Amino acid sequence: MYPPNSNYAEPPIFLLGTVGSGKTEVMQRLSQEHAFHVLDVGKIYRSLAYILLESTDVPHEQEIVEYVARYRQRLMEGIGALSVTTDNKVLLRDTDITALLQTESINKLVGQFALIPLIRSLVNLKIQSLLSAIDDASIVLTGHTLKEINTSKFCTIYLDVDETEAAERIMRSGRDIFPDMGTALASIKERNINVGASKTREQVKSVHNHIYIDTADISPEQVYEILTTKYKEFIGRKKRLHEYQQERSLDRQKFLWAKHPVLKMIQSHVTDYVAAHDAILEEAGICQIDFLSQVLMSCCAYPVQELCHNVNGQGKKLQQLDLSASGHYLGISTYESKGTFLNTELVNMIIAAHLDRYAMHRIAQDAMNRPSQSPFPQGAELTARGNRRIDLEGGYQELHYHERLSNRPVIARPVTSELSRVLAENYHYLHSYRSDEMQAFGMFLEGQELPFAWVSYSALDRDYKKELLGYYGVESHNVLEMTRAWSAIWAPKNTMSLLFHYSRHQMKELWRKKLRALQADKPLSGIYTTVNPNLNFTGSSFLGASFIPVGLRPAGLQFSFDHGIWVAKTRRQAKEAEQRGEEIKKNALPLLPLNEMLMLFDARLQEQIAQQPLHSISPTLYKHV
Questions:
Q1: Host H or E run for residue 421
Q2: Mean pLDDT of the chain
Q3: pLDDT digits (tens, 9 = 90+) for 58-77
Q4: pLDDT band at 451 (very low <50, low <70, confident <90, very high)
Q5: What are the tens digits of pLDDT across the range 510-537?
């Protein structure tokens, strides 16, 4: 993959498309009219075919790999002597061979060449060398697959055309390549199959901010006009996004994990209440962590002046305070030093309303949330020493752990979508299932059907998160998001860290299957997730699993009225409630920003990102730019 030179005047273009879609004409005009430096990946593949044919006749299809291995040294020497001019001419040992690359023999050979790992490796190294030699110039790189570049650094443009139309264009061009229309069409179909055109078309759809143009019923002039217009829009948006990020960046050294100054007081009060009424909560089967989260979220529906006594002017100060990471402790010291007191009457009313609500809805009423029902001794810890891996259907593995003190067996394995829905709707604090879930995993006691810990993964689908990753040079379509995570109150302390470790390796294997089926263009790059510090989440399990903070996002909650209390809803739930005619309100209490977390499998790239500032992102990002 090739990140562009930092001196590039404009974002480079990566131009893909089916055979005969008009890529060559677009490249020529970009080169002539806008001084783009053109690098044609296809011509480099063709040049290697030309170099091989200098030494031998066209080999039979089943002999191509053998011939490549036999003439490996000649191919390596030849590509070293290859150069590309600014007007896209290919020179071999300083001789222009461009006109010699469109023969029928090369057409037959080049499609198979793209499937050979050694050839792909030689081409990739050559492109990297050519790109690094270009200084302060605009670039258009063209190819057939996304494997050739890091799309986060390019404007990816895909040109498409029907194969029959493509054959007619080639015959009308006057180039004496094919004897008749039937031969031309057969060759185009074969080449599109060999380069995986249909798979690439689907892969491009997942690339953030890609540009797709169907060229079938429009002239080359119209294609060029559409492309350049969309490219200018792309440049303008990228420039404004860059400025937006620069203005809102935060020195990573100033980032501190902290608790909300008001919610910290409420949490302390609710914790004392839970301790005093532990038997009641346990008898009702109420999860203490979930109960605390629901109470804290409901409190956010009220302004600080109603939640606290004796705030005087300090309440106004908190409302105006920008609760960025660097401002967390300012808010805490203000409230502690000024003797602010909690309005316990209001908070107790919220607690009582939630107890009624739990009883009405029978939320999570089982042994998972009863401390006295723990199957593990105090101080329990899972260990992988002497573990076993068992292969399962679908390419997954089951991993067997045991608890260190009791030696009780524990099993990590995939979770079905049906069971995952039960866990999401009854145990996770959002009480909402992600319908786009890709796969979930759980930690099970041997012989139990319900896991005592669970994580769920989905595709990264929020544009503002994709922009953040792109800013760091990470391809968002090759990153998964951990959207849900939960564990029973009695789970051993290292349960989630081990489950993260197990599940990410399973997702990497799932991605390898997608890669082999050409449903993905590169291996899985990493995992993304979000931590909400307003709800007593410190991110310790994620930090222990090698995640790093990469961004801050404004937190916001929506509520509907339920059993005499404002109850927090997800965006989908709030929309459904609004459609039913229910009143929806937003949080009145200012909140700390959410912490966006990333774990990359490329340790060197993650270390580079860890040295950069944190950036602010927002769901309303595109409104700002």
A1: helix 417-426
A2: 83
A3: 677 668 888 888 888 988 99
A4: very high
A5: 999 888 888 888 899 999 999 988 887 7
Please give the helix or strand (H or E) that residue 546 lies within, else none. none
CA distances from 403 to 382, 420, 493 (A): 4, 24, 11
Domains and CATH numbers, the chain: 13-249 (3.40.50.300), 251-366+558-590 (no CATH), 380-556+592-624 (3.40.630.30)
**Which residues, listed in sequence order, are joined to residue 596 by a DSSP beta bridge?**
530, 551
CB-based contacts of 253: which residues, under 8 Å, 6+ apart?
none
| Of 145 and 454, the one with more pLDDT | 454
Question: In whole angstroms, what is the distance from residue 146 CA to residue 522 CA?
Answer: 8
Give the pLDDT confidence score for residue 6 in this predicted structure: 40
Query: What are 91's two structure tokens?
Result: 């020179």
E strand or H helix at 561: strand 558-562
Mean pLDDT of 319-338: 38
Report yes or no: 410 and 403 within 8 Å, Cβ to Cβ.
yes
Q: Which residues contact 123 (CB under 8 A, 6 or more apart)?
A: 41, 44, 45, 48, 79, 148
Most confident option among 265-279, 310-324, 486-500: 486-500
331-343 mean pLDDT: 51
Which residue's structure tokens are 């600014």?
86
Neighbours of 203 (CB within 10 A): 23
Q: Any idea what DSSP says for residue 216?
A: T
Q: What is the DSSP string of 347-411?
A: HHHHHHHHHHHHHHHTTT-SGGG-GGG-SS-TT--EEEEEEEEEE-GGG-EEEEEEETTT--EEE
Inter-residue contact 416 to 392 (CB < 8 Å): no
- Res 337: pLDDT: 33
Contacts of residue 100, Cβ cutoff 8 Å, sequence gap at least 6 = 50
Rounded (5°) CA angle 291-293-294:
65
**What is the model's pLDDT at position 227?**
95
- Longest CA–CA separation in the chain, Å: 91
Distance of CA 278 to the CA centre of its chain: 40
Two structure tokens written together for 319: 């409302």
pLDDT tens profile 474-492: 999 999 999 999 998 889 9
